[in-house]
Amino acid sequence: MTFDQVIPEFGEWLFGAFVLSLIRVGLLIAGGVLIGFLVASARRGPVEGFYSVAKVIANSVNDFVNWSLARTIAMASLAVQEAIRRLVLIVFVVFVVILLFAGWYLDTQSDNPSKLYLSFVLTASNFLVVLLALFLSAFSLPADIKNRTIYTVVTKPVRAWEIVLGRILGFVTVGTMLLVPMGIVSYFFVQRGLSHSHAVEEVAAAAAGDVTHQGETSYDGHHRHSFKMYNDGTGETDVAMSHWHRVTKVGEGDAATYEFGPAIGLLQARVPVFGRLRFKDRAGADASEGINVGHEWAYRTYIEGGSLAAAIWTFEGVTPERYPDGFDLEMNLRVFRTYKGDMEKGVLGSIVLRNPNLSAKVLRSEAINFAAKEFVSDKHTIPSTIRVVDKEDGSVRDGSLFDLVDEDGRLEIWIQCGERSQYYGMAERDVYILDRDAPFVANLAKGYAGIWLQMVMVTSFGVMFSTFLSGAVAMMATLSSFVIGYFSNFIYEVATGAKEGGGPLESFYRIVTQQNVQVDLEISKTPTAIIHGVDTVAMMGMRVMTGMLPDYAKFMGTSEYVANGYNIDGTLMSIQFLTAFSYVLVASLIAYYLLKTREIAA
Predict the structure, then answer these.
(1) Which domains does the chain have, with CATH numbers?
(2) 29-37 contacts, C-beta under 8 A, 24 or more apart
(3) What are the tens digits of pLDDT across the range 359-411?
């Protein structure tokens, strides 16, 4: 997983992006009032137009002030009963059936089975619940209006605001009633799919330091482990399929048996602590970034092997109180090879811990050599007692990790590539300290909370479109808003010219004529001007559209955190909840005014 989406501080986001969104909403409301006034003025004159708009606003204020929670709950209960009559529980049955047959299609020999299982259940839950919300919210109100059953509601003392909120609340309740058991079933499905045990296949005495025995486990769960036993009767296996086991020796001599504990590393919620990254070039001089090796995705830059080039992370808050026994350093480096060599052998590199305070008595640790592992998280344990290099005579001795930390709790970690003509690629968040493990169940619940927020927003948009469109058209409009919102980042890059190939019309022309995006259009001046003019208008509309719709991809990103074993930050959840609430509120207001204009009870 790449942490290319940096989570801002909540206060920074609240007084930055969120305030900007509120300004946009305010301008949108002001624009709606102005358009209403112009339409009314064209029909009845300026004075009557102003009176009509003022009357609508006054009635709206009266509706909001006299809003009744009891009537809203009554509307919600009607929506729930209607949804149940439509056999929405079939969605849960479909989900269970999918899980029953999932074992036929999932790659049980995957290098990271927990990611595979979690991605599967979260994706299945996501799309099933969103589709349910889409159909319920888009077809309900148009069907009631078409069948005239809405008259039994609007003729009673109930307000349009209460009808809108009741529909949204009712359909959200139905979705929640389905999503909660989905989450529970998913948890037990993943636990059962990953559960396995091992027995000893062979074991032999060994005399290497404190290692007393070495052996291999039986082949279970499509893998086996090798393990080592230590003097104190405990042991551990190697890492296979992204997990390992603790081993305990029971008994002595020929009667000794070995017990393997549960898998460690599969269902995790790691809390990473990130540092700030800077670079040194091949001559050892400061550089703003590494080398570009030609990859289109510029998330990572590279350092050259066999030179003074280095990537340097500065971590803060490294104190004995926080890490009394040291810490685990985790890396997700990439390797760019200029020659193949032995592809199964990792490219060698080194880790050096340095003190940012150059006047300190101890400046650096002894180099920790490693071989880079690609496409997996490579963990290195940094103990509290570490080999350090004496500043005066350069001798190597045992020292404390915290001798390398300055008085402000800062620690530098230097990573270098040791092989000439090979390169390490990294981004700022590719190396981090594992602070602790959060509860996995709570993290899974937060992942499902992200799915729930998507369902709530889709429901609110569906109800909004259903107030003035027929069922089928409202469904297509809601689905379009979801698709556009999911790809909003890509659409925005196209709209701002960040993507090569021009706007929609120019891109279509290049596809038809098979022209490369790197060259200018090979047509006469007038058609080129027309294409660019049309694209300018279209791209302006695309920018407005992406700014108005929620970025569903960010909400789906919480599932990636869970699947990759990282804890979902509380700041991220707070931002998502506040963002979703804002969209639901705006969609509800628009739906209220649109429903008022239909005059269905006239």
Answers:
(1) 67-193+438-480+567-598 (no CATH), 200-260 (no CATH), 272-437 (2.60.120)
(2) 29/589, 32/593, 33/57
(3) 888 889 999 999 998 877 888 999 999 999 887 777 888 999 999 999 999 99
